[in-house]
């Protein structure tokens, strides 16, 4: 990724307070031009608040927000080259689909004919041309969603804000729209800021993800970074499935930490600067990074007993209890069945992990 | 719940009481309407169908007075309802979109209180008010007082409609480069239109039918339809009064019906 690109949005130590409730606690982040950027976090963490501050519907209590280098705090929403796809779409119910899409262009000063022509083109882009003359209430949820997208894209904003635009769609349509959105972003070259509380959606679509919780930025990075190298407990737990276990750190050396689990099982984790020997912290290891065997292997091996096998479609999830220790979850892809054995409940086995699969986490 | 032994229809006497209520409410109107077509000088003796008394209203000895009064009534009703509707629309916008301001519930009380004040009290108060500021009584005083008491009638359907309109529509408009004013005229106003029309029609009817306040503030020689009818009745009941009442009734029924359907209608489908 080249860092030559201009910054689309610069949030500098922005704070948002509602009375004495602090919704955002000193957030700083930059969003690059032409990037698919996702704000990810659980309900109530302040994603919408940050989006509304960028759109201009909420003022910034402290700090500042720059749009392509320009301070925007004093610009009303209608002077910001930023468009929003609202969570509930907010299509104008008394206007036809075409007029909805043409609205932004008209308000920007394009002639009615020109605005409609452009709107027609954008409707084509989202494959809704045949519905141009209908009212929003005559469309399905998925179609309305695409109209909202077309309406926000038509005036060619510099930045497009999307507030959980897919949350009302069923799973199948949702997956299709995820891909469609990603393509649209590539084709138009517009910077997308996408809000979701669905970690899978975020991982699928984003160039970079900002994980938020309780008004604070927890981690910012590319999807792979966030998934494979979660910085703290919250991120490891929130993104994907993981084995989150308490460990005592015995020694730290060369980026590796010798630790032991409850029951005395020893293992080596990736160390982090903040954690030294003698502390009791958590570590995370993804279930798909673990595998089972009858005998110890060259990798890290922990002895345990199979408790239960759970079939989950693509994968088989196996719960293993370490002797006097915690439980591990191991995921085996069902396509690997030929290669990897199924261990029946009650079998004594070893849980193995490659070097670097387990990571220590700060709290 | 609506079926079975708690069904209100199975309560003893339900049907009888319902019929009695309907009878008391509508029998007099029915009698007036039917007898307005009576071909007789008498109010009570039926002598066959005729348009005679309708013709009398338009061409009879009192026709000049009635025509003048009808013109006054309609002019006042149109102007008063229009003005009241504009004021009520602005009031509703401020009340529903103004956020939480301190005097909000008091403001709402002030707007709707006139609905609960006995009309005679309002009438006396308005009369004293006009007298004390030395306003000469006439069409203008009627008009001003009608505007005043029409506002709450226009306000209620408008604000009810507006409460159902989420403010994300205006936000979406402003997000799409519409100024506040454009968001109001292009988005909010059209969405409010059914409420506004319904409010206008209600205000119109209330103004057209008003008697008590009008009777107090009208100048000598200035009549509206209700006061003219009353004046005529004082000189003796004639069947032409039934004809004119029936016409007034039908105007009201038509307006209320339109108002009902407009408020139910939806310009979003
Ligand atoms: N106008 C307001 N006044 C007071 N508190 C508010 C206001 N708007 C939002 N909040 C609070 O700020 C916090 C963040 O809200 P926000 O809407 O940004 O959450 P979110 O991350 O978008 O959540 P969700 O996923 O549920 O949409 C919440 O605790 C919310 O209660
Ligand atoms: Mg939200």
From TrEMBL, chain A:
<dbReference type="InterPro" id="IPR017871">
    <property type="entry name" value="ABC_transporter-like_CS"/>
</dbReference>
<comment type="function">
    <text>Part of the ABC transporter complex PotABCD involved in spermidine/putrescine import. Responsible for energy coupling to the transport system.</text>
</comment>
<dbReference type="InterPro" id="IPR050093">
    <property type="entry name" value="ABC_SmlMolc_Importer"/>
</dbReference>
<dbReference type="InterPro" id="IPR027417">
    <property type="entry name" value="P-loop_NTPase"/>
</dbReference>
<keyword id="KW-0547">Nucleotide-binding</keyword>
<dbReference type="InterPro" id="IPR017879">
    <property type="entry name" value="PotA_ATP-bd"/>
</dbReference>
<keyword id="KW-1003">Cell membrane</keyword>
<keyword id="KW-0067">ATP-binding</keyword>
<dbReference type="GO" id="GO:0005524">
    <property type="term" value="F:ATP binding"/>
</dbReference>
<dbReference type="Pfam" id="PF08402">
    <property type="entry name" value="TOBE_2"/>
</dbReference>
<keyword id="KW-0472">Membrane</keyword>
<dbReference type="GO" id="GO:0016887">
    <property type="term" value="F:ATP hydrolysis activity"/>
</dbReference>
<dbReference type="InterPro" id="IPR003439">
    <property type="entry name" value="ABC_transporter-like_ATP-bd"/>
</dbReference>
<dbReference type="GO" id="GO:0015594">
    <property type="term" value="F:ABC-type putrescine transporter activity"/>
</dbReference>
<comment type="subunit">
    <text>The complex is composed of two ATP-binding proteins (PotA), two transmembrane proteins (PotB and PotC) and a solute-binding protein (PotD).</text>
</comment>
<dbReference type="InterPro" id="IPR013611">
    <property type="entry name" value="Transp-assoc_OB_typ2"/>
</dbReference>
<keyword id="KW-0378">Hydrolase</keyword>
<dbReference type="InterPro" id="IPR008995">
    <property type="entry name" value="Mo/tungstate-bd_C_term_dom"/>
</dbReference>
<keyword id="KW-0813">Transport</keyword>
<dbReference type="InterPro" id="IPR003593">
    <property type="entry name" value="AAA+_ATPase"/>
</dbReference>
<dbReference type="Pfam" id="PF00005">
    <property type="entry name" value="ABC_tran"/>
</dbReference>
<keyword id="KW-1278">Translocase</keyword>
Automatic annotation (TrEMBL), chain B:
<feature type="transmembrane region" description="Helical">
    <location>
        <begin position="12"/>
        <end position="37"/>
    </location>
</feature>
<dbReference type="GO" id="GO:0005886">
    <property type="term" value="C:plasma membrane"/>
</dbReference>
<dbReference type="Pfam" id="PF00528">
    <property type="entry name" value="BPD_transp_1"/>
</dbReference>
<feature type="domain" description="ABC transmembrane type-1">
    <location>
        <begin position="70"/>
        <end position="259"/>
    </location>
</feature>
<protein>
    <recommendedName>
        <fullName>Spermidine/putrescine transport system permease protein PotC</fullName>
    </recommendedName>
</protein>
<dbReference type="GO" id="GO:0055085">
    <property type="term" value="P:transmembrane transport"/>
</dbReference>
<keyword id="KW-0812">Transmembrane</keyword>
<dbReference type="InterPro" id="IPR051789">
    <property type="entry name" value="Bact_Polyamine_Transport"/>
</dbReference>
<feature type="transmembrane region" description="Helical">
    <location>
        <begin position="241"/>
        <end position="262"/>
    </location>
</feature>
<dbReference type="InterPro" id="IPR000515">
    <property type="entry name" value="MetI-like"/>
</dbReference>
<comment type="function">
    <text>Required for the activity of the bacterial periplasmic transport system of putrescine and spermidine.</text>
</comment>
<keyword id="KW-0813">Transport</keyword>
<keyword id="KW-1133">Transmembrane helix</keyword>
<feature type="transmembrane region" description="Helical">
    <location>
        <begin position="108"/>
        <end position="133"/>
    </location>
</feature>
<keyword id="KW-1003">Cell membrane</keyword>
<feature type="transmembrane region" description="Helical">
    <location>
        <begin position="74"/>
        <end position="96"/>
    </location>
</feature>
<feature type="transmembrane region" description="Helical">
    <location>
        <begin position="139"/>
        <end position="158"/>
    </location>
</feature>
<feature type="transmembrane region" description="Helical">
    <location>
        <begin position="187"/>
        <end position="208"/>
    </location>
</feature>
<keyword id="KW-0472">Membrane</keyword>
<comment type="similarity">
    <text>Belongs to the binding-protein-dependent transport system permease family. CysTW subfamily.</text>
</comment>
<keyword id="KW-0997">Cell inner membrane</keyword>
<dbReference type="InterPro" id="IPR035906">
    <property type="entry name" value="MetI-like_sf"/>
</dbReference>
């Amino acid at each position: 990724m080249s860092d030559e690109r201009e910054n689309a949005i610069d949030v500098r130590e922005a704070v948002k307070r509602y009375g004495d409730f602090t919704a955002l606690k000193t957030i700083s982040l930059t969003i690059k031009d032409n990037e698919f950027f996702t704000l990810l976090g659980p309900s109530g963490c302040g994603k919408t608040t940050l989006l509304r501050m960028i759109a201009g519907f909420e003022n910034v209590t402290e700090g500042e927000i720059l749009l392509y280098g320009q301070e925007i705090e004093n610009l009303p929403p209608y002077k910001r080259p930023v468009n929003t796809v609202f969570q509930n779409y907010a299509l104008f119910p008394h206007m036809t689909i075409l007029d909805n899409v043409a609205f932004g262009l008209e308000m920007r000063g394009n002639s009615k004919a020109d605005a409609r022509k452009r709107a027609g083109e954008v409707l084509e882009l989202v494959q809704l041309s045949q519905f141009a003359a209908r009212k929003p209430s005559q469309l399905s949820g998925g179609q309305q969603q695409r109209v909202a997208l077309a309406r926000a894209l038509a005036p060619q904003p510099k930045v497009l804000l999307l507030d959980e635009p897919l949350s009302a769609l069923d799973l199948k349509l949702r997956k299709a729209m995820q891909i469609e959105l990603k393509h649209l972003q590539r084709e138009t070259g517009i910077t997308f800021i996408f809000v979701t509380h669905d970690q899978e959606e975020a991982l699928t679509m984003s160039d970079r993800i900002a994980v938020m919780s309780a008004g604070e930025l927890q981690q910012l990075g590319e999807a792979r970074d966030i998934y494979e190298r979660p910085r703290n407990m919250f991120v490891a737990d929130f993104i994907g499935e993981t084995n989150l276990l308490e460990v005592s750190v015995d020694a730290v050396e060369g980026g590796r930490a010798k630790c032991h689990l409850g029951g005395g099982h020893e293992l080596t984790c990736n160390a982090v600067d903040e954690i030294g020997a003698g502390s009791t912290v958590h570590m995370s290891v993804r279930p798909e990074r673990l595998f089972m065997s009858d005998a110890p292997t060259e990798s890290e091996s922990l002895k345990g007993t199979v408790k239960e096998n759970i079939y989950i479609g693509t994968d088989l999830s196996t719960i293993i209890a370490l002797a006097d220790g915690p439980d591990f979850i191991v995921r085996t892809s069902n396509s690997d069945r030929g290669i990897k054995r199924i261990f029946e409940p009650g079998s004594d086995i070893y849980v193995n992990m490659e070097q670097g699969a387990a990571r220590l986490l700060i709290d | 719940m609506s079926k079975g032994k708690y069904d209100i229809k199975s309560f003893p006497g339900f049907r009888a009481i319902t019929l009695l209520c309907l009878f008391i409410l509508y029998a007099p109107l029915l009698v007036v309407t039917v007898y307005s077509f009576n071909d007789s000088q008498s109010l009570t003796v039926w002598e066959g169908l005729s348009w005679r008394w309708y013709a009398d209203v338009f061409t009879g000895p009192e026709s000049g007075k009635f025509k003048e009064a009808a013109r006054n009534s309609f002019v006042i009703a149109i102007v008063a309802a229009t003005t009241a509707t504009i004021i009520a629309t602005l009031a509703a916008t401020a009340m529903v979109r103004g956020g939480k301001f301190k005097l909000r519930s008091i403001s709402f009380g002030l707007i709707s209180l006139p609905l609960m004040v006995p009309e005679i009290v309002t009438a006396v108060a308005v009369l004293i008010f006009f007298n004390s500021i030395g306003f000469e009584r006439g069409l203008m005083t009627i008009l001003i007082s009608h505007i005043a008491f029409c506002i709450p009638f226009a306000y209620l359907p408008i604000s009810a409609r507006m409460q159902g309109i989420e403010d994300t529509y205006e936000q979406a408009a402003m997000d799409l480069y519409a100024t506040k004013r454009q968001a109001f005229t292009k988005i909010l106003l059209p969405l409010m239109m059914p409420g506004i029309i319904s409010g206008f029609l209600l205000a119109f009817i209330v103004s057209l039918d008003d008697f008590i306040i009008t009777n107090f503030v009208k100048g000598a020689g200035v009549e509206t339809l209700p006061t003219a009818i009353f004046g005529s009745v004082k000189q003796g009941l004639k069947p032409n009064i039934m004809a004119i009442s029936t016409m007034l009734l039908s105007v009201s029924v038509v307006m209320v019906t339109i108002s009902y359907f407009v408020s139910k209608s939806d310009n979003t489908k």
